[in-house]
Predict the 3D structure of the following.
Amino acid sequence: MFQEVISNSIRFVVAIALQVFILNELRLGGYINPWFYVYFILMLPLQTPGWLLLSLGFITGIIIDAFSNTYGMHTIATLFIAFCRPGVLKFLSPREGYEFGARPTIDFFGIPWFFAYSGILVLLHHTLLFYIEVFRLSEFFYTLLRVILSSLSTLILLFLAQYLAFRKKE
């Protein structure tokens, strides 16, 4: 239990630091904005209670908002995926259910499951975030392109993080 808290705390600090100090400074043509900090919410244990999930989503979003001067946009989007995560997990659950102690990683569930899980939540996050940012439908297709390209770049980073952080021990 204590080791899980320590590893999640380290994951939180690394995801926030990577987002704030590196990814927020990247300018990739205005279309691509990888939001890697969602990694923290996605990698929380499957048994995380709803109140804790929402609290951590709020804290994560508010910290990113503070560093990005976005006035609540990341908080709303992160709270939204924290709220949707249990439903997505239920939708993607294996027939026999999740075993106790399973983590939402490629090692536990495989690439197709992780791609569906992270893809759904990242797409939900980015869609809400970018449409709140624009807040008008006149730029619908431009914003949709940003959502798709940013979601793909975020998924690439998530998969890289999976292979760097959760390599199978031999």
Remarks:
- The longest helix spans residues 140-165.
- The helical segments are 2-21, 38-42, 50-68, 73-91, 106-109, 111-134, 140-165.
